[in-house]
Design a protein that fits this description.
The chain is an alpha+beta fold and 695 residues long. Helix content is 62%, strand content 8%. It has helices at residues 11-30, 50-58, 83-96, 128-143, 157-168, 171-191, 198-218, 228-257, 263-290, 298-329, 349-360, 362-377, 398-409, 427-435, 466-480, 492-526, 530-558, 567-594, 599-626, 634-666, 685-694, and strands spanning 66-75, 109-110, 116-124, 150-155, 418-422, 440-449, 452-459, 488-490.
């Protein structure tokens, strides 16, 4: 069956294709997903890291899958607990016991200053869905019948999990509505039509929902664990990428409608001219995302896999579904600004004036744009990476507030002790080595079974801080020196330290691979060596400028103390891959026009033709990524903000000023070693491939 993107396609065929798409999407949603994959360890790290190895060894212990929820009692005025308060705490401890594993809860422990009491309630953590209801029950029981002024806060590992789950409740819906609303508003502003915006928005929304369903179906078969953060980023990326492709196609389609009476012929030409940059763009982003599969962190692998599926779906909808939907409705879809044959384009005049200004003084403009990027990049001086556990949330949940209360009177690490796993014969030696380690407050024997024994070590520093990492390293060095102990140090703080080290390793490995992949795609696309180097260099400049500007705002306006571990690599990935998109849109059009005239005239024509659509796409993508700020984690807000700033810089400065200035300076050498100027293309292999697809 012929697809409805060629000039011979009829409206009936377009309806048939759209009907087929409906059937395919319906079939996808009718399939029940497999059981989600479960990571080998909860952190998703490989067992080469001590925290992962420690968690594996814990699975042999009778207490495996059990973690304490810590009930923290204190007075609102931070005064010492009264006798009445202590009696109430004792009574609550007895009421909490039936809620603990084995019907037990630890007796109350009071701080030396008498201001805080804690009760540890063991919680079964083997069933993730049961943790939140159990923590809620503990909180209700712990806070019942307390004297005036006495408050209860529940913290510890299970409470952190429960609060993280709670803050994400409804976040997907909020993110979807906010993203769709922004896309709808910007499309309406761009096209100034009461109808046209509905078509791309509907297609994009279907692509986003189909992506999420496909990821649910496919990810378990590859052992990929997709968390809410990965889902949120994927949704935003699909909305942004699919809308960008739609803007590019619709702009070219509208241009062709001014030249051809047949909307089918117009769509064929539009698709032929835009398919190459769309496919190249999607290939660049997809390859960059798939590079994340080399990461050691499970969350990065999940983001890479899910987002790559999303970009492929976005590309397919842009090349097939959207063209069919557009030709079904005809020219009237553009009302009230219906394009007629012979109409003079209203678009491009502003960008033409910008291009002429750059062409007159390309050296001055190029140097000025470069200086702007350099000045912004200096804002990253003093950049810090690594948020503590208490700094992860935009709004602090009860578990974090409870940790802060606990840290006022107990060692800050009491809520998340380190776990040393060794063999039973080495327990005494490990205890002595750990006790003598700086930063260790106490060492308590834990469960033991077979050839595995655990020691619980309370550290003095707040979990997730640089000081706590230093204490974990010192503890690891101390226990490693015990002959025959084969001891490893795990627990929450050790896991966070290993995750940070894994993030550093991942960035070292993945960033060069992404740059090489992007450069390779550009070389193949532009048949050039010099132009791809220029484009990659400008995108790198955009990344560092966006990072510097964002870090200044984070520290001086928003009060963020550091970037989260995964922020740098994600921001780099999205900015490089997506930033190259706009340069692809511009450079492919400039090369096409240069074949008809020369490089300088071709770049000017390309800037006029693509200026409006690329600016609209960039502003839309920036706004869409900014929507990540509605999610509860600071890490996602940071990624969204950096990408937002970077895309705006790339759209309004780099693509508008810097890249054209380079083309004006170098002329035909811009495409070295290819010779482009004046070589009119009469039907390349790429065009023949597109014709075969859309015939």
């Amino acid at each position: 069956m012929s697809f409805p993107t060629g000039h011979a396609a009829r409206r009936r065929n377009a309806f048939l294709l759209l009907g087929l798409v409906v059937l395919i999407v319906g079939a996808i949603f009718a399939v029940q997903p497999s059981t989600p994959a479960a990571p080998l360890v909860s952190s998703g790290l490989p067992t080469s890291y001590q925290s992962a190895e420690a968690e594996l060894r814990q699975q042999a212990l009778p207490s495996e899958g059990v973690a304490p929820a810590i009930v923290v009692y204190s007075r609102e005025d931070e005064a010492a607990l009264t006798e009445q308060d202590k009696q109430a705490v004792t009574g609550r401890a007895a009421a909490l016991a039936p809620l603990g594993v084995g019907g037990q809860a630890a007796p109350p422990v009071y701080s030396a200053d008498g201001k805080v009491a804690i009760v540890a309630v063991p919680v079964d953590t083997t069933n993730d869905e049961a943790v939140s209801p159990k923590v809620a029950e503990i909180r209700t029981t712990a806070a019942a019948d307390l004297p005036a002024g006495l408050i209860a806060q529940v913290t510890g590992g299970p409470a952190i999990v429960a609060d993280l789950t709670k803050v994400f409740e409804g976040a997907d819906t909020t993110l979807l509505l906010a993203t769709a609303g922004i896309v709808a508003a910007l499309l309406l502003i761009t096209y100034r039509s009461p109808w046209l915006w509905l078509v791309p928005l509907t297609v994009v929304a279907v692509a986003e929902q189909t992506t999420l369903k496909l990821v649910d179906l496919v990810a378990p078969h590859f052992g990929i664990v997709v968390d809410p953060a990965a889902t949120g980023i994927t949704s935003v990326l699909v909305f942004g990428a699919a809308t960008d492709y739609a803007l590019l196609l619709i702009a070219r389609y509208r241009d062709q409608l001014r030249k051809d009476e047949s909307r089918f012929n117009a769509m064929r030409v539009a698709l032929r001219r835009t398919s190459e940059p769309i496919i190249a763009s999607a290939a660049t982003v997809t390859l960059a995302l798939l590079a994340l599969l080399l990461a050691q962190q499970e969350n990065l692998r999940a983001i890479g896999f899910a987002s790559a599926v999303g970009v492929i779906v976005a590309m397919l909808t842009g090349l097939f579904v959207l063209p069919a939907a557009l030709v079904v409705f005809g020219r009237g879809l553009f009302w009230p600004f219906v394009p007629r044959v012979g109409d003079v384009p209203r678009e491009g005049k502003f960008w033409g004036r910008i291009g002429e200004s750059v062409r007159r003084r390309p050296h001055v403009v190029g140097v000025g744009a470069t200086l702007v990027l350099v000045i912004l990049a200096t804002g990253a001086i003093g950049l810090q990476v690594g948020l503590s556990q208490n700094e992860q949330f935009r709004v602090k949940p009860e578990a974090v507030l409870g940790q802060e209360t606990l840290a006022r009177s107990f060692p800050a690490g009491a809520s998340a002790p380190a776990a040393v796993l060794t063999n039973p014969a080495s327990v005494d030696a490990i205890t002595a080595a750990a006790t003598s380690t700086p930063g260790v407050v106490s060492v308590t024997p834990g469960p033991s079974a077979g050839d595995v024994a655990q020691l619980d070590v309370v550290l003095s520093a707040e979990p997730g801080t640089a000081e706590s990492y230093d204490e974990v390293r010192a503890l690891r060095d101390a226990v490693a020196a015990v002959p025959g102990a084969d001891a490893v140090v795990g627990g929450d703080t050790a896991t966070r330290l290993d995750s940070r080290d894994a993030a550093t390793r991942d960035a070292t490995v993945i960033i060069p691979i992404v740059l090489l992949l992007v450069l390779s795609v550009l070389v193949l696309l532009l048949r050039s060596l010099l132009a791809p180097v220029f484009l990659v260099a400008t995108v790198l400049g955009t990344f560092f400028a966006a990072l510097g500007a964002s870090w200044w705002i984070f520290t001086n306006v928003l009060g963020y103390p550091a970037l989260d571990n995964a922020v740098l690599i994600l921001a780099f990935l999205f900015l490089v891959a997506l930033g190259v998109d706009y340069n692809i849109f511009l450079a492919t059009r400039a090369r096409e026009e240069a074949m008809l005239s020369n490089t300088r005239d071709g770049m000017l024509t390309a800037l006029k033709a693509t200026g409006g659509v690329i600016t609209s796409a960039g502003i839309l993508l920036a706004a869409v990524f900014a929507v990540l700020g509605v999610l509860p984690l600071i890490a996602l807000a940071q990624v969204g903000f950096i990408v937002c700033i970077g895309v705006l810089l790339d759209t309004l400065l780099v693509r508008t000023v810097l890249v054209p200035s380079l083309a004006f300076i170098f002329g035909e050498r811009f495409w070295w070693p290819a010779r482009v100027d004046g070589r009119e293309r009469t039907g390349s292999g790429d065009e023949r491939m597109v014709d075969a697809v859309i015939a």
